[in-house]
Design goal:
The protein is mainly alpha-helical. Helix content is 69%, strand content 0%.
């Protein structure tokens, strides 16, 4: 590996990270330490690095700082200037990290606000079957029980097995799509829902789940287009209007 300090540039975030994690060779670590003695800015960054993590974009910003030639050993920075510089760097890094976090979690927050596990007629039918003694497929019964308890991953095992034997049961297919969203598997849910578009399943339920699946998959434009194309009825129409407003750029 070539020397870190050609042209006496500042350390990159990656170099600081490797130094903090003891991933450098003894020679490389010695070069880092020698640079830290000459560079108060990098020394301050190294000292606080264990409490802060930096992204690739932050590293690029630090690389730009590398073009600046700082005073060599023997000429110290005024303490106030050094504190101000460190504060500015932390503010910039923190603001960028917050922006990244908010961008990454926006679709998750919207999904969480609007997703409610679908309550198909099966749940009431299961109760009726218990009261009247009507028989129900054991696998489907187990799936409904787990689904009703919020154990979507567990319910999927039984639903898949049941649908392999009863592929014509569109209600079970819809239930599986809802469970997949509860288990955060949007791509599988989207695939199943598209396969059911030509069936007799309730289209309001189908397209509402499809909108939520695209949101969960961070495809907000697709979700918005689907909202505009679908005429939801009743209480769901009001929800759709609120959701559309939230999806506006």
């Amino acid at each position: 590996m070539k020397s870190f300090f050609k042209e006496r540039r500042c350390l990159s975030a990656r170099e600081l990270q490797r130094y903090a994690n003891h991933e450098l060779s003894p020679r490389q670590a010695h070069e880092v330490e020698a640079h830290l003695l000459d560079c108060p800015l990098c020394a301050a960054a190294a000292e606080g690095y264990t409490d802060h993590s930096f992204s690739a974009a932050d590293e690029a910003a630090l690389e730009e700082l590398g073009a600046i030639h700082f005073p060599a050993r023997g000429r110290s920075f005024p303490r106030v200037w050094m504190n101000q510089a460190a504060a500015v760097l932390l503010i910039v890094a923190g603001a960028y990290a917050l922006w990244q976090y908010e961008s990454a979690t926006r679709h998750q927050a919207i999904f969480a606000a609007y997703y409610e596990p679908l309550q198909p007629a099966y749940l009431s039918l299961r109760s009726a079957a218990i009261v009247t003694g009507t028989t129900m497929d054991a696998g489907l019964k187990a799936a409904l029980q787990l689904y009703d308890q919020g154990d979507f991953k567990g319910s999927l095992v039984f639903l898949e097995r049941y649908l392999n034997e009863h592929p014509e049961d569109v209600q079970a297919g819809l239930l599986m799509a809802s469970a997949l969203l509860g288990d955060w598997q949007p791509e599988r849910a989207i695939n199943i829902l598209h396969q059911m578009e030509e069936t007799t399943v309730e289209k309001g339920d189908l397209y509402w789940l499809l909108v939520l699946a695209h949101i969960q998959n961070d495809e907000l434009g697709t979700a918005m287009a689907l909202l505009n194309q679908t005429a939801f009825q009743g209480a769901r129409a009001e929800k759709a209007a609120h959701l559309e407003a939230e999806l506006e750029p």
